[in-house]
Design brief:
Pfam families: Thiolase_C, Thiolase_N. One of its GO terms (molecular function) is acetyl-CoA C-acyltransferase activity. Its EC number is 2.3.1.16. By secondary structure, this protein is an alpha+beta fold. The chain has twelve helices and twelve strands. The strands form two sheets. Strands 1, 2, 3, 4, 5, 8, 9, 10, 11 and 12 form a ten-stranded mixed sheet that branches. It has a two-stranded antiparallel sheet with strand order 6-7. Strand 11 (about 360-370) and strand 12 (about 375-380) form a beta hairpin. Helix 1 (about 25-40) crosses helix 2 (about 65-75), helix 3 crosses helix 12 and helix 9 packs across helix 10. The protein is globular.
Length: about 375
């Protein structure tokens, strides 16, 4: 079996809703990171055998297989194919896992994985406004008429694990503090590709970080899904715009083209769970990945658990018993934003660079996904 390696991982800054990236077509936003992969590695794009791209709202500007239109917009040869996938919030992490599987099976030597979401231009929920509802009567009957809602699921998690509003707000404030510290220290600079807006403004920093966020300031926000609940805008992921991309190769191809691997994919898993509470699947996904890998929680030097809502990583911590200092060390989606189809790649890029910078051997990423699913991917640093 071939070994798949990551030789480069990049992302755009994450833009706020209607912020600096909102004037850019998602095809062109995708083209920015594809172009950056070529510029940073010197790889001939004609060598890329497929572009596997995550995107959730595949309508309007994000329809018609955005992977293909994006690579053509980037000026890549017409011989390069592209495919767009949807595993909800984990779409670009799944894109990586599909790319890795294809390399390991010997089908590809060079492949790009990544994703995009412009939530300013293609609002969340756009895809369900067309031609009926996504939940059939048979589905509703199975779950006693419950219509899955992620915010309600987050409230259910908080109640099940006995989380107070103060606890979830403390986690949210920490996310902003860690992200601000990482930004100030330049820790995101190596992974971010600056983007030039139509008016000539260059966006090079994540826009969502709210400095000085405190439990006291968050306490003033009104809950959204339950009057006496805990979930509000300040402890949920931000609506955002962004794209991410990773260049994946076989070890042999990396040697052939003179490129230095950063990390190899040690283990990749995906699992399903209850689609009503929806957001708990990162817990069994992590357990499955650790069991399959033969590694323990203590072997993992950094964990990235997507902060869709604060109760998600908090419940994960309670069940997995990982060191909280190793969880989302540079902040997460509560502070940095969550551009759905691009988030998995955004998190992977941060984790890859964090591992290289700190010489961490193993890192694990997992994220909850619509329908009650989760991917878990373990990366291993390549010693150079």
């Amino acid at each position: 079996m071939m070994t798949a390696v990551i030789v480069e991982a990049v992302r755009t800054p994450v833009g706020k809703r209607n912020g600096g990236l909102s004037g850019i077509h998602p095809v062109d936003l995708s083209a920015v990171v594809l172009t950056a992969l070529v510029e940073r590695t010197g790889i001939d794009p004609a060598l890329v055998e497929d572009v596997i791209w995550g995107c959730v709202q595949q309508v309007g500007e994000q329809s018609q297989d955005i992977a293909r239109t994006a690579l053509l917009a980037a000026g890549w040869p017409e011989t390069v194919p592209g495919v767009t996938i949807d595993r909800q919030c984990g779409s670009s992490q799944q894109a990586l896992n599909f790319a890795v599987a294809s390399v390991e099976a010997g089908h590809y030597d060079v492949v790009v994985a990544g994703g995009v979401e412009s939530m300013s231009r293609v609002p969340m929920g756009s895809s369900v406004q067309v031609a009926g509802k996504p939940f059939s009567q048979a589905f509703l009957d199975r779950y006693d008429g419950a219509v899955p809602n992620q915010g309600v699921g987050a409230e259910m998690i908080a109640e099940k694990w006995g989380m107070s509003r103060t606890e979830v707000d403390e986690f949210s404030a920490r996310s902003h503090a860690r992200a601000a510290a990482a930004q100030d220290a330049g820790l995101f600079d190596a992974q971010i590709v600056p983007v030039t807006a139509p008016d000539g403004t260059v966006i090079s920093k994540d826009e969502g970080i709210r400095r000085g966020t405190s439990v006291e300031s968050l306490a003033k926000l009104k809950t959204v899904f339950k009057e006496d609940g805990v979930i509000h805008a300040g402890n949920a992921s931000q609506i955002s715009d962004g794209a991410s991309a990773l260049l994946i190769m076989s070890e042999e191809a990396a040697v052939k083209y003179g490129l230095t691997p950063i990390a190899k994919i040690h283990t990749a898993t995906v699992i399903g769970a209850d689609p009503v509470i929806m957001l708990t699947a990162p817990i069994p996904a992590t357990a499955k990945a650790l069991e399959k890998s033969g590694l323990s929680v203590d072997d993992i030097g950094v964990f990235e658990v997507n902060e869709a809502f604060a109760p998600v990583p908090l419940a994960w911590l309670k069940e997995i018993a990982a060191d909280p200092e190793r969880l989302n060390p540079n902040g997460g989606a509560i502070a940095l934003g969550h551009p759905l189809g691009g988030s998995g790649g955004r998190i992977l890029a941060d984790m890859v660079h964090h591992m290289r910078r700190n010489k961490i051997r193993y890192g694990l990423q997992t994220m909850c996904e619509g329908g009650g699913q989760a991917n878990a991917t373990i990366l291993e640093l390549v010693e150079n």
